[in-house]
């Protein structure tokens, strides 16, 4: 369990919102900042829900940074399968880093079969890397202003990265299955090596490194209808894969 500055917690890396946001649609909880056009999740401490929409003061809190991720694969698992990754951290068409459409080749996943499940895991890995590589200008200044307003004199520099995906495989894999596999010596309940264990462990190592660097990481599964941007980027990448 990871304690966060606004009083929330991430249990087992599950990134669902706090109860006070219950009843809001996902597109009301994940907000595009009107200033930087990045995606952030509504903060329960620095805003409020009236049951119909989320309201915030002059500045939108950027504590919870969001990346939408998706993976696509044509002819899944076949000899001529092609896979692609889609990532979206914002909507600014002039900011190249806001979206990524990445064909999967051996530079990304060497010697491995091209499957939709591997593409979903690779997208989560690349999505976290993208968040790490694209810090938000002025983010610390805004958080410090909120802290002063709330009488909080602590210097908590923790960030929160949220991987938002429609993949149950990724979310349950990272929050439920992997902890169970670790308790069994990296084996399933049937004593077998889990499928795609290499990527689950690679994602786990990345998350652990971020956590050790004071970045909390959560995974949140949303319906596919709310992941259309990343889905389109992933399909485009798969169509361009060699």
From TrEMBL:
Keyword Amino-acid biosynthesis: no
UniProt enzyme class: hydrolase
InterPro entries, per the entry: RNase_H, RNaseH-like_sf, RNaseH_domain, RNaseH_sf
Catalytic function, reaction form: Endonucleolytic cleavage to 5'-phosphomonoester
Keyword flag Hydrolase: yes
Keywords: Endonuclease, Hydrolase, Metal-binding, Nuclease
Gene3D superfamilies xrefs: Ribonuclease H-like superfamily/Ribonuclease H (3.30.420.10)
GO MF assignments: metal ion binding; nucleic acid binding; RNA-DNA hybrid ribonuclease activity
Catalytic activity, EC: 3.1.26.4
Domain RNase H type-1 stretches: 61-239
Pfam families for this protein: RNase_H
Gene Ontology process terms (BP): DNA replication, removal of RNA primer
Family: Belongs to the RNase H family.
Name of the protein this chain belongs to: ribonuclease H
């Amino acid at each position: 369990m990871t304690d966060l500055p606004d009083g929330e917690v991430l249990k087992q890396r599950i990134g669902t919102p706090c109860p006070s946001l219950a009843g809001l649609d996902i597109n009301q909880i994940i907000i595009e900042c009107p200033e930087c056009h990045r995606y952030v999740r509504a903060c329960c401490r620095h805003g409020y829900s009236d049951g119909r929409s989320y309201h915030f003061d002059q500045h939108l809190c950027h504590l919870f940074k969001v990346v939408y991720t998706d993976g696509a694969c044509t002819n899944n698992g076949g000899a001529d399968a092609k896979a692609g990754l889609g990532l979206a951290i914002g909507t600014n068409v002039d900011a190249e880093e806001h979206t990524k459409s990445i064909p999967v080749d051996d530079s990304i996943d060497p010697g491995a079969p091209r499957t939709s499940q591997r593409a979903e895991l690779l997208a989560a890995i690349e999505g976290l890397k993208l968040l790490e590589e694209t810090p938000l200008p002025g983010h610390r200044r805004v958080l410090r202003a909120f802290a002063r307003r709330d009488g909080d004199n602590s210097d908590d520099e923790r960030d929160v990265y949220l991987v938002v995906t429609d993949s149950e495989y990724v979310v349950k894999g990272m929050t439920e299955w992997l902890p169970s596999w670790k308790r069994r010596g990296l084996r399933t309940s049937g004593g077998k090596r889990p499928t795609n264990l290499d990527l689950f462990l690679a994602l786990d190592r990345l998350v652990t490194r971020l956590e050790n660097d004071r970045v909390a990481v959560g995974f949140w599964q949303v319906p596919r209808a709310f992941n259309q941007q990343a889905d389109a980027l992933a399909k485009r990448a798969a169509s361009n894969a060699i």
